[in-house]
Amino acid sequence: MPPAPLCPCSSGLRYRACCGRYHSGAAEAPDAEALMRSRYSAFALREVEYLWRTLHPEHPDRARPKDDFLREVRAQASALKYPRLQVLDRQLADVGGTAVVLFHAHVFEKGRDRSFVERSEFQHDGTGWRYLRGESRAPRELPAPPETLTLATFPRPG
Predict the structure, then answer these.
(1) Total domains present in the chain
(2) Within 10 Å of residue 78's Cβ, how many Cβ atoms?
(3) Is the pLDDT score of 2 beyond 70?
């Protein structure tokens, strides 16, 4: 019997012991970084219901019809490959309850590099951590190599 697959979130753990338990609903991600990793894995594995469930109620996509969101994300995710994730920096929840994670998502479409670095914000909704918003940049738009960036050095709109 082949070993269970590794989790797409690049944790080095087997999927069932990592993001699989969040995708199945057996557990909630315990912190913002775990939620971000599980959302990357959900894109990689086309777990679109999970992506919907983990959107914060204030995220703009929540104002759209759920079926439209699911269809669009499913189509987008099926065209992409998600080979690697790098967490670059994180900040625990502030006084307002917002936690922040900076990550580099390695993404490819038909061999073309669609990778990006994103500064994502998450809030707990009383049930679990949820994706509130994000700002992303292509690596070529950054002032330094992605792996050297921190939350403090990630360029923000001025």
Answers:
(1) 1
(2) 9
(3) no
